[in-house]
C-alpha cells in the first residue's frame, strides 16, 4: 500500500476519490463569494444529503468562510459598478437567497462606504448607452425602459433624462 492511502477510501464509480461537502464548498468559495442558498443548491446538485449540507454550511459560517452579509456587499458593489439600480440589485439578491434584513444592512454599508448617488449612477448608465434624451416620445420611452430595467426608480430616471 502506498503512503497516505487507505484501503477503505471513498471513491466514486469513476474511480476518483469523492470530495467532502466541505471540500466542494471551499473550492467554490475560493473562486468567489456565494450566498448560503447558492452553496446549498450547488451541494444538492452533487447529491450531498440535506443534513450534511446544513452541518457543512453552519461550520463554514461559524469559521467566517461563508457570510451572506459579505456576499451581499460584494454583489452590491459589483452591480453598482455595472450601473444597476437598487430595485434590480435587490431582486437579484432575493433570487440568490439573501434575506431582506441582510440586504438592507449590506446596501446601507456599501452606499455609505462608496458614497453612491443613485441619480448620478442612472445618468452614467444612460450616457453610456445613449447620447441624447430622445427626440420623440417613443425614443424617450425607450430610454425610460432601459433605466427601469436597470433597476432605477421614477425620480432617478427623470433626473437622468433631464441631465442628458
TrEMBL record:
Protein name: Regulatory protein RecX
Span of domain RecX third three-helical: 116-161
Protein's UniProt keywords contain NAD: no
Origin superkingdom: Bacteria
InterPro entries for the chain: RecX_HTH_1st, RecX_HTH_2nd, RecX_HTH_3rd, Regulatory_RecX, WH-like_DNA-bd_sf
Positions of the RecX first three-helical domain: 22-58
Gene that encodes the chain: recX
Keywords annotated in UniProt: Cytoplasm
Amino acid at each position: 500500500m502506498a503512503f497516505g492511502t487507505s484501503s477503505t477510501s471513498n471513491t466514486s464509480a469513476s474511480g476518483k476519490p469523492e470530495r467532502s461537502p466541505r471540500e466542494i464548498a471551499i473550492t467554490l468559495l475560493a473562486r468567489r463569494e456565494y450566498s448560503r442558498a447558492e452553496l446549498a443548491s450547488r451541494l444538492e446538485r452533487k447529491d450531498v444529503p440535506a443534513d450534511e449540507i446544513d452541518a457543512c454550511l453552519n461550520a463554514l459560517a461559524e469559521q467566517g468562510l461563508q457570510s451572506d452579509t459579505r456576499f451581499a456587499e460584494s454583489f452590491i458593489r459589483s452591480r453598482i459598478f455595472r450601473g444597476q439600480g437598487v430595485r434590480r440589485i435587490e431582486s437579484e439578491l432575493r433570487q440568490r437567497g439573501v434575506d431582506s434584513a441582510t440586504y438592507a444592512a449590506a446596501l446601507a454599508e456599501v452606499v455609505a462606504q462608496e458614497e453612491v448617488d443613485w441619480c448620478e449612477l442612472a445618468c452614467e448608465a444612460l450616457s453610456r448607452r445613449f447620447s441624447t434624451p430622445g427626440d420623440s416620445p417613443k425614443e424617450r420611452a425607450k430610454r425610460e425602459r432601459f433605466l427601469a430595467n436597470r433597476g432605477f426608480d421614477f425620480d432617478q430616471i427623470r433626473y437622468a433624462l433631464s441631465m442628458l
